[in-house]
Amino acid sequence: MPDPFLSSSSVVALRGGPLIHPVRNPGMPFDASWLDGLRVNQSAVERRTATLAARRTVKKDAQAAWLLKAVTCIDLTTLSGDDTEGRVRRLCAKARQPVRADLLEALGMAPQRITTGAVCVYHRFVAAAVDALKGSGIPVAAVSTGFPAGLTPHPLKLKEIEASVADGAAEIDIVVTREYVLTGNWQALYDEVREFRAACGPAHLKAILATGDIRTLSNIARASMVCMMAGADFIKTSTGKEGVNATLDVSLAMVRMIREYHERTGVPVGFKPAGGVSNAKSVLSYQMLMKEELGRAWLEPELFRIGASSLLADIERQLEHHVSGRYSAFNRHPVA
């Protein structure tokens, strides 16, 4: 089977040469001229994304390799009202060994250390997750700033970020104020995200746009660019709580903005689809999108994450089918 991993030095080739991770986006002063004339042709987007599933496929060993790579990019997530510390600790155990040892052995991947990209939880469980993942190198991501609606007072949002960082969160998933996008108040959006970025300190910031709420692809493109100007290390589609979450169409609009920002500044920014990426077939389409639009480096967890919970179980089922020729029930692949 092809080895889907880069060397342990985590040096990846971007268009401008080698880059050593982890990457931070320092941001830049707000420049409204970057938004002038920024429009997205929805019909063209739909034609482009339709080709991903229809014309781009991988099979057999290659598919297994791509799915193993996808596992390493999952932000394994639990964001339910009935979360408990026990559930979070079980999730962390799964993050440490997301694929059964016998499957890795059969795939010839037993020597590789495969983990998920991160574990994502509410602030309440950050300390427990950090403790459960001690020594694993797996970061804890905390959703913050009044997730999922983002309508708590701004000072409280900053304090929530600071509290999660103090408890050990290495990544903070913030939600933007949708009103700023819907009313075109781009300066306010920039200022908000800039302050979130400062509150994060050493922690990486993922800006959640809630694409299902801000409606148009043009809004999504402009909001993506403003968040990157403000210093977002990742831009993320959704909270997973909206009526419509990640889609290939909104993802294309966002990754094209990532490409433009990188071409203008030389700074690579990560991308995270979240909500609705629940099976192996769909995640392959997102991987193809990243590879074709941004390049090989954006298949690594430093620049690509998938917010998911049930996805891991389906990937493990597909890997078992590849090994044995038989599908197993979902309950044989529990996440937590």
Automatic annotation (TrEMBL):
UniProt GO molecular function: deoxyribose-phosphate aldolase activity
PANTHER family: DEOXYRIBOSE-PHOSPHATE ALDOLASE
Keywords: Lyase, Schiff base
Record has Lyase as a keyword: yes
Record lineage: Bacteria, Pseudomonadati, Pseudomonadota, Betaproteobacteria, Burkholderiales
One term under GO cellular component: cytoplasm
Record-stated family: Belongs to the DeoC/FbaB aldolase family. DeoC type 2 subfamily.
Protein source organism: Paraburkholderia rhynchosiae
An annotated GO BP: carbohydrate catabolic process
Enzyme class: lyase
Designated name of the protein: Deoxyribose-phosphate aldolase
Keyword Lyase listed: yes
Pathway the protein acts in: Carbohydrate degradation; 2-deoxy-D-ribose 1-phosphate degradation; D-glyceraldehyde 3-phosphate and acetaldehyde from 2-deoxy-alpha-D-ribose 1-phosphate: step 2/2
Reactions performed catalytically: 2-deoxy-D-ribose 5-phosphate = D-glyceraldehyde 3-phosphate + acetaldehyde
Enzyme Commission designation: 4.1.2.4
